[in-house]
């Protein structure tokens, strides 16, 4: 199949760019002496996770047990579930993941959760690898750095069915800070809390084999932190407009290539200034304050026009699309856009080389 | 299964409320002498479509061929595809829908599309029911009202494999105008264009058996249009925060009940002012400028905190949720929120009465 034969809207991955992205991040991690554990919440696709591992990653992160189930079933090893696993239903399913991939790690930020995990593991005769999730100022999950983190780590240590491995600190608030130096300052400021907590762990004889964090925006900033053992970036594999705009070490953020697009079709040309494509807010995520950008089609500006419509205003004369024209767009934000699709068309130029199921799509449970 | 046993985040439908919504809209349509053709793009769920028809609807609208395929396969009859079907791939699949449900209607707004549809139908030995899609000022799809619409209708008439049935005019821009009288004025202004075009059709001997339009915001406004034969509202069946805020005939918009919620679990309580739930921007759509609202849990305010996290700030003392607490939220916008889930739990009180597949989820193709 070629691009022209695909039903639109369709999610396309440019394999040449994607493969270069994987190679580049793996080579970077190797050079700086960090392990790479890319975040699979970005793509939710076992085929991509397996390729990341083949390119040198130690395993992948997932956000939820539902994603872990899909990855584990597909043979993806060394999973880290980066969000707390709370309550009997979720912990029961975590046991199912452990049955397939016993080395899977979970994170904790509350003594009650440590207790319920420890009891469930003991009853099941399992040992769960655990990281203490430290809040580095993102005001999301995580225990406070310093003594509170240390106390929680000791609670983990005391549970015979839990195996403390180290720490996690995710500074999501820093990932998209505009300008490399600004971002470096922001990340350094907050990640210092994680590093100090790491020192405290070490001083108290607690394991720090795994200290996990970082994003596609800070991978080459957090890599300077001596105590950090692994990098978690996700978007680097496919990229999006949000990352492209943050600025890189040498001006533009051209660290990774824009490999992900949404293919659309022009379904209406109601006037000389306007054309409608068949992709609206059910085909692109809307969580960013900017909109999809047409690829190799200058002179048009996209705006959302409902669930299934995108409006193209013509800004340059002679650029009016015709009925049936196919136009690709870069998505504003890759993760939630991918989560709208069931499959990704892996393209080699104009040819569909493979169709990969986004098997963990919608697996937020 | 009961609510407490459901994996979260989960999409819940309160059946008592939902059934009353269906009854109320059907009774209304009957009273005003209009046919009801609810828009199934809202729910994408054949089980719901079949219940709407059982409650009195003549059929359902769908936005895309992909949705039509799912509905047709599930035995849902009298489909109207409200978006133009353009290009050989889509038209090929439309033929598949017609093989199951020959009475299916499509809309057109361009002579080239009329031509390709006519040729494909002729080749396949099929006759396609067609409405002329009229732009009533929404700046989306649709041919201009008046003479341009008439010209297009004549092109449809001349094609032996196309069967002109009438017109469609969807005024999406009016659906959420705040205040009933303001909304009435806005809708009346634009729908007049559709009515005038209808008169022009009639005067020229063209069929106007079907004149389709309306929304859950304007159903009891558009019902006053004598020439309108059917109402298209979708959200009324389940409702959302967006519709609840627009105001109704007697002050508040309490025409239909809030039947749809997202069930979440508290997975982290990092401080005395804040708790995190396991539902973020992959569990609620983000296309509206307001956020999910906690049901029966006053004193907390939700904000998005990433793909899989929602942050609850405590605004009243003593309302801090505990780890593992289950909190339901009304979604800002029902259609794209439902599109994130694979199934809907149909609840009778706290008991799961049925699990319905959202079989057309992601079927934007």
Walk me through this protein's architecture.
The structure is a homodimer of 365-residue chains. With 365 residues, chain A is an alpha/beta fold. The first copy, chain A, has two domains: 3-9 and 255-357, D-serine dehydratase-like domain (Lyase, Ornithine Decarboxylase, Chain A, domain 1, Beta Barrel); 15-240, Alanine racemase (TIM Barrel), CATH 3.20.20. Chain A is 31% helix and 22% strand. Chain A contains ten helices and 17 strands. In chain A, strands 1, 10, 11, 12, 13, 14, 15, 16 and 17 form a nine-stranded mixed beta sheet that branches.
Considering the chains and any ligands shown, give keywords for the structure.
homodimer; alpha/beta; 2 domains; 10 helices; elongated
CATH class of the largest domain in chain A: Alpha Beta
Q: Largest sheet of chain A, if any?
A: 9 strands, mixed
Order of H and E elements of chain A: EHEHEHEHEHEHEHEHEHEEEEEEHEE
- The oligomeric state of the chains shown is homodimer
Number of helices of chain A: 10
What is CATH's topology name of the largest domain in chain A?
A: TIM Barrel
Evaluate the radius of gyration of chain A.
22 Å
CATH superfamily of the largest domain in chain A: Alanine racemase
Structural class of chain A: alpha/beta
CATH architecture of the largest domain in chain A: Alpha-Beta Barrel
Helix content of chain A: 25-40%
Which whole number gives the mean pLDDT of chain A?
97
Report the end-to-end length of chain A measured between terminal Cα atoms: 34 Å
Q: Most extensive chain contact?
A: A-B, 64 and 64 residues
Q: How many strands in all of chain A?
A: 17
Shape of chain A: elongated
Strand content of chain A: 15-25%
> How many domain regions of chain A?
2
Which regions of chain A have little confidence, pLDDT < 50, spanning 5+ residues?
none
């Amino acid at each position: 199949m070629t691009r022209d034969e695909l039903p639109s809207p369709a999610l396309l991955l440019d394999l040449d760019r994607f493969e270069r992205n994987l190679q580049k991040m793996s080579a970077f991690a190797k050079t700086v002496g960090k392990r790479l554990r890319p975040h699979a919440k970005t793509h939710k696709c076992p085929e991509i996770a397996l390729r990341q591992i083949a390119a040198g990653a130690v395993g992948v992160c997932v956000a939820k047990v539902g994603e872990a189930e899909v990855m584990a079933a597909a043979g993806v090893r060394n999973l880290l579930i980066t969000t707390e696993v709370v309550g009997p239903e979720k912990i029961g399913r975590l046991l199912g993941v452990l049955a397939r991939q016993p080395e899977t790690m979970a994170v904790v930020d509350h003594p009650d959760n440590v207790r319920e995990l420890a009891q469930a593991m003991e009853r099941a005769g399992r040992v769960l690898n655990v990281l203490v999730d430290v809040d580095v100022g993102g005001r999301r999950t995580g225990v406070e750095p310093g003594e509170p983190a240390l106390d929680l780590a000791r609670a983990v240590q005391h549970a015979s069915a839990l195996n403390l491995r180290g720490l996690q600190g995710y500074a999501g608030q820093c990932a998209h800070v505009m300008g490399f130096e600004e971002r470096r300052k922001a990340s350094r400021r907050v990640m210092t809390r994680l590093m100090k907590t790491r020192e405290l762990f070490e001083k108290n004889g607690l394991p720090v084999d795994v200290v996990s964090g970082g994003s596609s925006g800070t991978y080459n900033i957090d890599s300077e932190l001596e105590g950090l053992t692994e990098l978690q970036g996700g978007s680097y594999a496919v990229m999006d407009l949000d990352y492209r705009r943050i600025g890189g070490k040498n001006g533009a953020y051209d660290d990774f290539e824009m490999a992900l697009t949404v293919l659309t079709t022009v379904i209406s040309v109601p006037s000389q200034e306007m054309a409608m494509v068949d992709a609206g807010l059910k085909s692109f995520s809307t969580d960013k304050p900017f909109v999809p950008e047409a690829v190799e089609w200058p002179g048009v500006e996209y705006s959302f026009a409902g669930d299934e419509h995108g409006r193209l205003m013509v800004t340059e004369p002679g650029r009016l699309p015709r009925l049936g024209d196919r136009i690709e767009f870069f998505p504003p934000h890759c993760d939630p856009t991918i989560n709208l699709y069931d499959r990704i068309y892996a393209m080699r130029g104009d040819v569909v080389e493979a169709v990969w199921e986004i098997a963990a799509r919608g697996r937020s449970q």
